[in-house]
Amino acid sequence: MSRPSLEAAALAIGGVLFAGADVLRRLVEPSDPTPASVVSAVTSHAGIWTGATLLSMIGCMLLAVGAMAIVRHATGRGRMLRLVGGAMMTAGALAGIAHASGYFAAYGQWARSGISAGTIKALDAGGEAGPVLLLSIGVFMIGMLLGPIVAAIGFRRGHLVPMWVPVAAIVFVVAGATGGLVAGLVGLIAAAAAFTGMAVRVRAEPAEGELVAETVTSHP
């Protein structure tokens, strides 16, 4: 496979895995979660939670690769929006790896350790007060909430994708911020549509450097 094909696959698959991890999280988490109730739920559904952890981490890694490709391939009309959106997604996806470790993996470890509810509460409060975790959560939220929408609008502004791609990106973000399993499933479908739509263009478009080289070659 060519490099653009691999980058496009990373973007599409990463988006689906990321949204799939969110669906699994919603399957496990109670409707009114507290640190102790989440640990209890994770203990009862350890396999699903481990799957969510892996999907989230792998999805974020792939999304980072795909988002960097959006930046690398940004040319023509809508270029700046794609540059900004791709950069935001890259930062958000990288921070998402830290978030998956600090949230999914941490609750999995607490569930396996059998520690008391009081200890769980203290650990959760201490973690939330840490500046590194707070920064990673902030970058993750901003990057993954705004980045896909900005990038998709950039693709649309360049007439590179149909209107349903930015619409799907908006639905993905709104569903992600809405509670409930149904919203998670809607977000999964929207993620598949939005990220696949953008991935098709990443695969089809030459990078800026390749475009310049092509131009020089064709005009000696």
What distinguishing features does this structure have?
220 residues, mainly alpha
Q: Can you characterise this structure?
A:
With 220 residues, the chain is an all-alpha fold. It has nine helices and no strands. The longest helix is centred in the middle third of the chain and has 35 residues, at 79-113. The model is unreliable at 209-220 (pLDDT under 50).
The description of the largest β-sheet is: none
Task: Spell out the helices and strands N to C.
Answer: HHHHHHHHH
Shape: elongated
Low-pLDDT segments? 209-220
Radius of gyration, Cα only, in angstroms? 19 Å
Structural class: mainly alpha
By DSSP, the count of extended strands is 0
Estimated share of beta-strand residues: under 5%
- The overall average pLDDT, rounded, is 86
Question: Quaternary status of these chains?
Answer: single chain
Give a brief rundown of this model.
This protein has helices at 3-28, 35-44, 46-72, 79-113, 117-128, 131-157, 164-176, 181-204, 208-218.
Layout of helices and strands:
Blueprint: H1 3-28, H2 35-44, H3 46-72, H4 79-113, H5 117-128, H6 131-157, H7 164-176, H8 181-204, H9 208-218
Helix pairs in contact: 1-3, 1-8, 2-4, 3-4, 4-6, 6-7, 6-8, 7-8
